[in-house]
Design goal:
The complex is a heterotetramer, with two copies of chain A (402 residues) and two copies of chain B (366 residues). Helices cover 44% and strands 14% of the residues of chain A. Chain A has 402 residues and is α+β, with helices and mostly antiparallel strands. Chain B is built from twelve helices and ten strands. The chains are: A alpha+beta (402), B alpha+beta (366). The interface between A and D is large, with 55 and 49 residues.
Chain lengths: 402, 366, 402, 366
């Protein structure tokens, strides 16, 4: 056990802090997408090695060696000083690693640099109305017509579709192959004719996602990543990364701090809510669970740094545990506020900008999204505990039992 | 001995359900939520069916039914997420008038309420926990202060509780009264807040126990509303699971989904009988006209609201999970029920508070 | 709604009360099985119509008309005055109704009267080590050899096996038939050679059950109830009665009263446990759930009396809900006592004779026994909600997934 | 940066697990439970492996390891339901002596404890909530009164807390001391009670904070013990489900059974890291020799014990359910782990109390 980062890293931390102090006044606060300000900051960050740190320099990254602790220090220092850490999005978190792994040289050259610089924004076209938990059941079809794929079908849960320049998309190209083997991974511009975007309003009242419809969308043949029919494999090399990030224990601690503050501020009949024992006990229960989640996260970080692997279960449980815990944390805030906890929209009595109620619902969405809790339990029991897969069924039935 | 609904009760409940299913489909729920519809069709339709006259005595143009009957209607309203002024307008305010109103007051208001000509709100939430600096004080028949969480807002008259726990009737047009909507996550009903600046008011002469009775009636009604909403969510879940296919099977054939539905049913089904009992025992105590009651109605009202709040929250969450991503969207609209249940949970006392009240009522708290 | 029992029934209640007053001093307190005292009391009760009330007089019963309310009144009055209500046991609760439904005239004459009088005690041989939730998988075999069945195999969960004179037993007589169709219902004396009883100690530390082993047990051919191969049907006509009785809300209320008393009596650092808000909140939570269970029970009673049927779900959920609620009720008592809650066996500090800890464990057993909670959920979803049965599986597997 | 076990730590833990698996199979657990075995094989075997010397400094014949190492051993002991005097004898009493004993006291007791020549119990439970009329008062170096729930009972010396929170060492043979076993549902370890009638005692000079440190060490140890026991129950559940067939399938292929096991794993796995952290932060504060610590070790000890008590109770119940009827019998013996977890939950503070203590330590309680 050694929870210090060591002298070398404390030196690195000092460097980051120095950079941040120097850019304190010039770093943008809430830069607009594609703005000169945003792109310029992105380039500054890459050059300094605080963004796209390990992406090869030839594709526009910083070209540094992977070092999880350095990444962590960067994240910690940017968070501490509340400095904008650079543009995120699925292009950067998902497409870039995918291209680095499976893209052609030409694709890497064409797409990675503008994506990293924030000049090219992406959305992801995976889920479909009929393909949620069973993602591989997707039916959006791409048929080769000369030198072009002709895409028809519908995607759902596509965030930032209205903003994106391009989409990376799973489509079925071999309708007769077994379901995992007939899928290909296509890239195409969102300006291509035949694409319709419909905002998908969710229970929070916002359109955090969209539905995207394709009608005879024509895509140049070479805009495929990996071989034809191997899209499932291409996508899955990085799909798992998405899941863990839904349950960040540091974000959880941040919310917990806010929750304590809320309970110390809100009153009922003049009594602070934190002085009501049943609420305080719930707060303490959640505190204990957040502490456990943070320790587990520390263990995973250590495993990554030291490449000790060795605790697959510790990684597998984070999405299930984290999203449910977060939902309950937000629920306590809502309950603690009583009727005030119902305030929403433009109600002037909103606490925390209405974030408690929003996050309470949003995290119910995350319990479902990115692999429902039921799917997570399948994964934990099958891959983590070595229990049998769901057996093959003789026949699907729509009928209830007698 | 019979513990169940009479044919008339079942018919009445079914007729409200049917009316809502026909007149107030999901599209209408959405329109009301976005203020594109004012709910008049539901309000007028149900008034025409006599719902507004439900608890008012026959001498004042009502039909003189009890809390159990009102709870059955509330269940139907929750089932259909109806934008009906009910808990205050049809139950609490008429009851307060009947218990503590002068005959002049009763003659003035009850027939109009019974006929659905006017609606009544209740600014009484501070009795179950005042938040921040709210509270209304009464001096020489005039009210000053602020009331939040006014039930059945945008009414013609309001029942107002002052900080001493006494009740008053205030005309919505009274001088010095101003109000505004209190927007909540639940967009299926209206909540509001009222400010009082030396507002003329008519006092009612309710005893503390009568005030408690009025509050408890409201609690049973909100619990019944949640029961209806949760039952609807369970039914929708089973129906959705029976048609949604994943992995070449309807998801209703997965044991995990089946068990989620079974757990919802197992928690929810006993709640139905609990609502019946809570309504029945309140009516029995009220008919006995017995102020030295044994407190059973009080215990049932508190526990029914607390228990159903917990159960229905569980159902709301689980039903959403059964629907997968669809449950999170506005496409199936499941969230309207989810949020209505969430609102009922907080109004007129959260479960934690009601359990504490129940313990206090039994003298358990030193 | 009319919760009064009505004048006729209040008259009946007065009759019962009068009987009880008259026998106040002569009714036995804890009669020994088979004792003269026990048998004589049993006969007195049957004659008065307070036991075996609806069993035809020709078989030794009282011969009264079924009347659920009268049965309830009898139960209430006997409980109120703490009068012994007569001997119970599986012979009376399960075998007698089975024989009335499916037995031959000779069997009814031979077995019912001595069973009702408490002269003939029975045990039940249904479950087997390999046949628990899947009871129909039972393998104890009976092969016809001349005029006798020769029984070999093993039963488990056989309560009162040491005390019983006879056993009613499910055995496989048609090994080649589909599993539900190869079972027969046999009756035989526990004195038959080849029967070995081994007490089965459970987590409460007691042997509440037994294992029973059969080696070439020879049973006269005519000691079969119903037709050969129809034992499953014979047993199932009454099996469902067993389940509801595991979760009696009146017993629950009785325990709840005791729990309140316990919390008002136990102290920590001089403070009564009931004055500790987190325990009081748990008590109130459980109180609400018990109230719901009692209302549900009242609804079921009313349905039976008025033959309105109509709420199959209300009946289906009682076992699942009741056993879990009871387990949690007992758990609160254990927790409230702190370390005192651990006391067991001959510890002089036991509260309530150690019943809290015992019942806490025993009700975990009941969550499992009589159809586990998992099986109950299958039943509720399939029969109650019309969801599909567990699909047929292509092949059983013992292997975990990769 | 490394948050994980060293090779030595893993080896040490594994060697204890292996020793117990070989020397203390289920039959032996049963014999100990029925007093047919006195646990000497385990006691002596583990002493021979140096376990008794674990936390004692090298000057007194120990190996000077920390609470984290002790917690790893405790996990192994819980895993094997070992009848080892540990929480008091190896952890709390040596720690109290090292923190507050005179050098004469340390020289007298620590080497013998390190060598496993004597064992030590702790009559300290009253500090975490005195039940009934228990309590020990100290007057002029003499103790009178009664202590219940004495950990590692039938020891040679006892650590005793008086009603002022001061600690004393008492010889088991001291005049006026009488003791008897406190039989519990958990038959895998010994608990007892002691009566003091003017018993001569040696005071230790521990500060209130040092007493808290000793209690907190005990809490982390009991939590680690439960972790080991719960992990064993989970492992047994998966193994049982993989071989038990019902309805022509191994029950491990039923989604309901899979999900029960997944839920156990999901709850339990983060507890492992939590134990590590609780041990590590306690050691770090103790090494810093810093009395004005920031309270992290205190918070982790309280929350770790509270959280693991809840999680392990859930695992104990769920594992029993996965085993079906077999889980309820003595045939598979699963109940020994169930009961050990149940006992750990109540000892040195129930979850409710510890959460309250944690809030108080943060100044949250007015």
């Amino acid at each position: 056990m050694d929870l210090s980062y060591g002298a070398e890293y404390e030196e690195f931390r000092a460097e980051v802090a120095e950079f941040l102090a120097k850019h304190k006044d010039t770093a943008p606060k809430n830069p607009e997408l594609r703005s000169v300000e945003a792109i310029s900051w992105q380039k500054t960050l890459i050059e300094a090695g605080y963004f796209a740190r390990t992406t090869p320099a030839e594709y526009g990254g910083h070209g540094g060696k992977p070092d999880i602790l350095k990444s962590r220090i960067i994240a910690e220092e940017f968070a501490r000083t509340r400095t904008h850490p650079g543009m995120g999005g699925q292009g950067i978190s998902m497409l870039v690693p995918t291209l680095l792994e499976s893209g052609t040289q030409a694709q890497k050259e064409q797409f990675i640099q503008p994506t990293l610089h924030g000049e090219m924004l992406w959305c992801q076209g995976y889920s479909e109305p009929g393909a949620g938990s069973d993602l591989a059941a997707l039916r959006t079809a791409a048929v080769l017509d000369g030198d072009e794929w002709v895409v028809n079908g519908q995607k759902i849960w596509t965030s930032t579709a209205q903003l994106a320049d391009w989409i990376f998309c799973l489509v079925r190209t071999e309708p007769d192959a077994p379901k995992h083997q007939g899928i290909s991974f296509l890239l195409f511009s969102m300006d291509t004719p035949g694409i319709e975007i419909r905002p998908l309003v969710d229970m929070t009242g916002k359109a955090n996602f969209n539905e995207v419809f394709f009608t005879d969308v024509r895509v140049p043949k070479n805009q495929i990543v990996g071989a034809r029919g191997e899209g499932w494999k291409v996508a899955n090399t990085i799909l798992k990364h998405e899941r863990g990030s839904l349950a960040d224990p540091n974000a959880m601690q941040h919310r917990l701090n806010g929750l304590v503050e809320l309970l110390e501020t809100e009153t009922v009949d003049g009594t602070r809510v934190i002085d009501i024992p049943s609420f305080r006990d719930r707060l303490m229960r959640i505190t204990g669970r957040v502490m456990a989640a943070k320790c587990n996260d520390l263990r995973l970080l250590s495993n990554s740094i030291n490449k000790t692997g060795g605790s697959p279960l510790a990684a597998m449980v984070t999405k299930l545990q984290g999203t449910e815990l977060r939902h309950e944390l937000e629920a306590l805030a809502v309950d603690a506020m009583g009727e005030i906890g119902l305030a929403y929209g433009d109600n002037e009595h909103l606490r925390g900008g209405g974030s408690w109620q929003t996050q309470y619902m949003y995290f119910l969405g995350l319990i479902i999204g990115g692999g429902t809790s039921q799917i997570q339990k399948n994964i934990i029991s099958e891959r983590g505990l070595g229990m049998p897969r769901e057996p093959k069924v003789v026949a699907a039935t729509k009928q209830g039992a007698a | 001995m019979e513990f169940g609904l009479s044919e008339e009760q079942t018919l009445l409940q079914d007729s409200v359900k049917r009316f809502l299913a026909e007149q107030y489909p999901l599209d209408k729920v959405r329109e009301f939520a976005t203020n594109d519809d004012d709910g008049a069709i539901v309000r007028n339709g149900l008034a025409a069916m006599g719902i507004t006259a439900l608890m008012i005595d026959e001498d004042h143009g009502g039909v003189g039914l009890g809390l159990l009957d009102a709870a059955l209607i509330a269940e139907a309203l929750g089932h259909g997420t109806a934008p009906m002024p009910f808990v205050a307008s049809v139950v609490m305010v008429p009851q307060a008038l009947m218990l503590g109103g002068s005959s002049e007051q009763q003659d003035r208001w009850l027939p109009k309420l019974a006929a659905g000509e006017i609606t009544a709100g209740a600014a009484i939430s501070e009795l179950t926990g005042a938040r921040g600096d709210t509270g209304v004080t009464a001096t020489n028949g005039r009210l000053s202060g602020r009331a939040m969480f006014v039930l059945d807002f945008e009414a013609d008259i309001y029942l107002v509780a002052d900080t001493n726990g006494a009740l008053h009737i205030v005309d919505a047009d009274a001088q010095g009264l101003s109000g505004k909507g209190f927007n909540t996550v639940d967009c299926t009903r209206k909540l509001g807040e009222l400010s009082f600046d030396n507002v003329p008011a008519e006092a009612l002469s309710c005893t503390a126990q009568q005030v408690a009775t009025v509050l408890n009636s409201g609690r049973v009604i909100l619990a019944a509303d949640s029961l209806g909403a949760a039952q609807n969510m369970l039914d929708q879940s089973v129906a959705y699971a029976l048609q949604r296919e994943q992995f070449n099977r309807v998801i209703a054939s997965f044991q995990a989904v089946k068990h989620m539905c079974a757990e919802m049913a197992a928690e929810l089904e006993p709640c139905r009988a609990m609502i019946w009992y809570a309504g029945h025992t309140a009516d029995a105590e009220s008919n006995a006209n017995n102020n030295s009651n044994n407190g059973e109605a009080q215990q049932y009202a508190l526990h029914t609201k607390a228990h159903l709040s917990e159960v229905c929250q569980f159902v709301a969450r689980t039903a959403t999970e059964v629907h997968g991503g669809m449950g999170f969207t506005d496409l199936v609209g499941l969230h309207y029920w989810f949020k209505r249940i969430g609102a009922n949970r907080q109004l007129l006392g959260s479960p934690e508070r009601l359990r504490d009240d129940a313990a206090r009522a039994l003298g358990m708290v030193n």
